[in-house]
Design a protein that fits this description.
The complex is a heterodimer. Chain A has helices at residues 2-32, 39-56, 61-87, 92-114, 139-161, 163-173, 175-180, 185-211, 218-232, 237-257, 263-277, and strands at residues 130-132, 135-137. By secondary structure, chain A is mainly α. In chain A, a hairpin with a 2-residue loop joins strand 1 and strand 2 (135-137). Chain B has one domain (2-238). Chain B is 77% helix and 3% strand. Chain B has a two-stranded antiparallel ribbon. Chain B has a two-stranded antiparallel ribbon with strand order 2-3. Classes of the chains: A mainly alpha, B mainly alpha. Chains A and B meet through helix 3, helix 4, helix 9 and helix 11 of A and helix 4, helix 5, helix 11 and helix 13 of B.
Amino acid sequence: MVNLIQYLFAGLTMGVIYALTGVGFNLIYNATGVINFAQGEFVMVGAMLLYTFQEVLHIPSPIALVLVVIGGIIVGLVFEHTVVKPLMPMGVITVIIGTIGASVVLRGGAMLIWGKDALAVSPLLSERPIFLFGAALNTQVLVVMAITALAVLFLWYFFSHTIVGRAIQACAMNPLAALLAGIPMEEMMALSFLLSGSLSALAGGLIAPITLAEYDMGTMLALKGFCAAIIGGLGNNPGAFVGGLLLGVMEGLSAGYLSSGYKDALAFLVLILILLWRPEGLISRGRGERV
Amino acid sequence: MKRDYLLLLTLTVTILLLPPLLPGDYYVEVLLFAGINVLVALGLSLLTGYAGQISLGHAGFYGMGAYISGALTAHLGWPVPLAAITALLATAFVAALVGWPTLRLKGHYLAMATLGLGIILYILFVQLRGITGGASGLSGIRPVHLGDLYFDTPRRYCYLVWSIVVLAFLFSINLVHSRTGMALRALHYSEVAASTLGIDVAMYKLKVFVLSAVFAALGGILYAHYITFISPETFGFMYSVDLVVMIVLGGMHSIWGALLGGTFLSLLPEALHRLEDLEVMVHGLILLLVLIFLPKGFVGLIEKVGEKIHGAP
């Protein structure tokens, strides 16, 4: 029982990170139709920035986390301006290859700046674990949950109650109609990258104290975030959340009860099975585009 | 098409004459490895140029070829041709398994699925210690021979590799100009239009993907039986990215792009020895800059220069 709680919480914590990454994928996919291969590197940059702000510059943790989010915004916007916008006229496949190039540049750059070793980042609250139903929990787990809940609340309010959020959604649903309605598409696209970059950097900042910060942590996170997005149906944000949590819990349980070696293979297996069986995702209706 | 055969003839003659002219075995070896890269890149360029899809798992297929063929000869003493064919079939099977669910869908699910596959295969190369030797590598892979003719010098093996490259180009030229090739180009322009003409879009894409995986595996087999010792890091994610850099650099719209890009990127480390850690980033930057400033790669550049000289095409 104690073990079960421990595995569940470990799974949920990672699941929340996958969910944030998955939403990051969705935001860019909805705005451009592009699967962004640098999404994992956005997360990595967030983790690295937190290390620099908190451990090197000794800025208090909450402020450091805010700075990380701002860093993510900058990365997202620069990425949109230098990679996506110039390549967009040449077609989706070219942009996708561009994001692959950008991911390699970001990873290589991070390796030069922060080195090859995994960096330890201290948790936001205390180092001492707390006990819940007899299970020892890292306090960071609670921090991750709480801040993610806030982010979700913000996203929900933004997309359903503000005119800008609804305009972004309109662009995703029908770009032509949105343009006719006078929505400035270019700005909405930049805004999507801004949101995507900030959410992913936040995810990186939150997870760094649990998994350590490493220059090549992005690839695996991207794969799992993408898997979360696919489980929920690509482009569907609530779906990505459920998908992320589901994947995280599955991983947590299989790592606990089966073998941690299989953990990373699980996401890939789930990805293939979902694409085979329900490409439109488990949660959304319709939208699955078959040729 | 005539032009393609002419280019192939030029390539064949160049390759026949080049090795004796090179100053030493080291350079012959560089040429040999360039040939392997060109072969793998050629497969990827068929996938990207003609099916409009991108794969980030080709290093995995390359590794499958190398490890399966290598392990069968090293552990079980199989003859090389039999081991190689087994490796090709196994790779084709795995590619079909991943391609089938992802290529039925519109969009670019294949890229992410192959990224995942590449990572899983890499994990397997490291973890299946009994077969692959794990991180310390697999040794004792048998060299290639035809009867009494052993391909054991760099020069002989270089000729072997490039003969296969030339054959692969011959095959690809014919494929591109065949019904299949035309169907593929049609679906590259408009999948909807292609499917209304009765082209089974998903099936064609799957065939090209499997073919390109087989090319990659063939490259891996050639690599393994020359080096006779392989370890996982050769088959990591970075090689998949390098392959993408090769085809973009050469020009994605033409199979000759694979030749130019593959050769260029193989020679680049020779010119930039001191880069080491910077190399990864330099490759990424090359990819981005070429995409932005030279979207049709070297081949596009040559075509442009040709047009300037000869007037309109």
